[in-house]
Design a protein that fits this description.
Number of domains: 1
Number of strands: 0
Radius of gyration: 18 Å
Helix content: over 70%
Shape: globular
Order of helices and strands: HHHHHH
Strand content: under 5%
Structural class: mainly alpha
Number of helices: 6
Length: 163
């Protein structure tokens, strides 16, 4: 489902980019991603960390399969749409020395993305070793914090990326 939803979201993001600035849309789609991540935070695991076999099944505010699927679709769609705006902002703000040759901004973005995926896999493994029981929150809460930090940094540098 995530793969199927990428194309319409990208088309919609491209259509929106005709009417709004990249920095504005990047902020909005980061907010949408943060909302999707917030939907997946399981408050019952924060306060009740018993190692039960039911994983808070039936508890109020517990994240179930439907809530997880909806949250992950929203977060993934927001990240995918935001990626295009961030790439557009980077292409406009990158120094001209990094825009030519083999080691250009496109290659650097690819290398950073690949490194991020590798570090992400290591992070997932480390969090699983800490606690399988609380794995969802151990992954989602730092991701939400990083998304909020990214929104703050964009807000703080909003005028710099006005191109």
């Amino acid at each position: 489902m995530n793969g199927i939803i990428v194309i319409p979201v990208s088309v919609f993001a491209g259509w929106l980019s005709q009417y709004r600035e990249d920095r504005f849309l990047a902020m909005w789609f980061m907010g949408i991603t943060a909302l999707g991540l917030l939907i997946m935070v399981d408050p019952t695991d924060i306060f009740d960390t018993d190692s039960s076999e039911t994983y808070n099944y039936g508890a109020s505010f517990a994240v179930g399969p439907v809530q997880y699927i909806i949250g992950s679709l929203i977060a993934f769609s927001g990240v995918e749409a935001c990626e295009s705006f961030v790439a557009s902002l980077m292409s406009k703000c990158v120094p001209s020395a990094l825009a030519v040759g083999t080691f250009n901004s496109g290659l650097l973005a690819t290398l950073v993305g690949t490194g991020g995926r590798a570090v992400g896999d290591l992070f997932i493994t480390a969090m699983g070793l800490i606690s399988i029981r609380n794995l969802l929150n151990l992954l989602i809460i730092p991701g939400l914090a990083l998304m909020l930090l990214s929104m703050f940094l964009l807000w703080k540098n909003y005028n710099i990326v006005a191109i």
